[in-house]
Write a structure and sequence with these properties.
The protein is mainly β and 446 residues long. Helix content is 0%, strand content 47%. It has a domain of 245 residues.
């Protein structure tokens, strides 16, 4: 009667009579509190039980065919040098999943759901790119290959609910499209991590619309695209975060796309895409995050182009750093070209501080402005001025822009605010040269 129950037992795979989970009944299993105190099982594991695949306990066949085994178990552990493959279908683990050695093979388009903690430090989580998904519902998920080590998966990892996930140290390789999906109020952090697509994998990291999830990248490298449709993606840590993959649902050569939610770059941090790739916005927000109250802190985007076709651009957005007091102006530097086709730029504008009148949006290449209703809606500091100042630049010199027909704008040295002689007789929204700095601001038709 002990095993016709709803109280958990701990089962240990031996594979003594073959690879079947269920046949002969109990034949491939032992039970006991640990691997040192085991007796032969008289039944198969059920939904109430903890299941262990332990390399020190296996006596014959390491591989296990789940077959008609239960579609729910309490916990699942592959540990201690286990070298076999556990083949499963749709399965829910109500407690912990621990994968340290061996392989979990999921059937085509099946789902492995983990309702408690997920720990993955070794082994393979489904080698086949067959449409399978691993759903982590939390509270924690820890994926740690270790320095110099690589973990591989053919499954999509979907963090749902309110998971606090950390993917850190080493390399994580995917052979599935949409490799990481962050939903609900889940938080995923990827410090010092390499995320790699084994095959072309567009939209590999996705924050879906309608959710409030967060994705933190800290000195990470990903040869996969980032698509932000909701929630917030933070680039932070004071180093460089790299995305060199592609997002398929947007224009060619887009590595990072934002249609909703927010892409936030912490001051002192660089978001880098490939030299022929772009960051592309159609909605949501692109914001820089202050980390202290210093004047002119800078966040950087590096790549061929920042293309803003909708949404908001907000520099030094205090809503992401409410503890910062006294901060005034900041800078968004684009190492490459800017095309501001549409959307709203919300600079901080107010009384001069260190001879600077506004936030600085700066490009080392051309700065192009389209005519699809790009708008400026300044966020004024106290004391407020009646005039809103807009500072944009390309090629190393920035300008305080004035509307067409008003006259040439004043020209300043970057950061110092020192006026330079204007070389324009009449202000035009077209190519211009200020001193020895060649750059262009252009109004373009659709």
């Amino acid at each position: 009667m002990l095993e016709g129950r709803d109280c958990p037992s701990t089962f240990w795979w031996t594979g003594q009579y073959g690879t079947s989970f269920t046949y002969p009944v109990g034949g491939n299993w032992k039970v006991g509190p640990d691997r040192y105190n085991l007796v032969p099982a008289t039944s198969n594991p059920t939904q109430y039980d903890d299941i262990n695949y332990d390399g020190a306990v296996v006596t014959n066949n390491a591989n296990c065919q789940w077959g008609s085994g239960p579609n729910t178990v309490r916990s699942l552990h592959l540990v201690n040098g286990f070298s076999g493959t556990v083949q499963i279908g749709n399965l829910t683990v109500t407690d912990d999943l621990e994968l340290r050695t061996g392989n979990i093979s999921q059937g085509s388009s099946t789902t492995l759901t983990v309702q408690d903690d997920l720990t993955w430090t070794g082994g393979v989580l489904n080698s086949a790119a067959n449409g399978a998904t691993v759903v982590a519902r939390g509270p924690t998920a820890t994926i740690t290959p270790g320095a110099g080590n690589t973990l591989q998966s053919g499954s999509r990892l979907s963090f749902e609910g309110a998971v606090n996930a950390s993917i850190s140290t080493g390399t994580l390789e995917f052979s599935s499209p949409r490799s990481i999906v962050v939903k609900g109020t889940s938080t995923v952090t990827v410090p010092n991590m390499v995320l790699r697509a084994l095959t072309p994998s567009p939209d590999a990291i996705v924050l879906p619309a309608g959710d409030s999830q967060k994705f933190y990248a800290d000195n990470a490298y990903a040869d996969m695209g980032l698509y932000v449709a909701g929630g917030t993606a933070y680039m932070q840590g004071g180093g460089t975060v790299v995305f060199v993959g592609l997002v398929s649902s947007n224009p060619v050569a887009t590595a990072v796309a934002v249609s909703g939610g927010a892409l936030v770059i912490e001051n002192g941090t660089t978001l880098a895409v490939g030299p022929t790739q772009r960051v592309y916005m159609t909605g949501g927000k692109l914001a820089t995050k202050p980390v202290n109250a210093a004047a002119q802190p800078k966040a950087t985007i590096s790549g061929e182009r920042l293309h803003v076709r909708g949404g908001e651009v907000v520099i030094s957005d205090g809503s992401y750093a409410p503890g910062i007091v006294g901060h005034r102006y900041g800078e968004l530097e684009v190492v490459g070209e800017v095309f501001w086709e549409k959307g709203v730029y919300k600079p901080t504008a107010g009384a001069p501080q260190n001879a600077v009148l506004s936030d600085l949006w700066h490009a080392t290449g051309n700065f192009k402005i389209g005519d699809s209703d790009p708008r400026v809606e300044p966020i004024s500091n106290s004391p407020a001025l009646n005039t809103a100042y807009l500072i944009m630049s390309a090629g190393g010199v920035f300008q305080q822009a004035t509307p067409p027909g008003v006259g040439p704008p004043p020209v300043f040295e970057p950061h110092t605010g020192t006026p330079l002689p204007s070389v324009l007789g009449n202000w035009e929204w077209a190519g211009a040269a200020f001193g020895d700095k060649n750059w262009s601001i252009e109004f373009l038709a659709d």
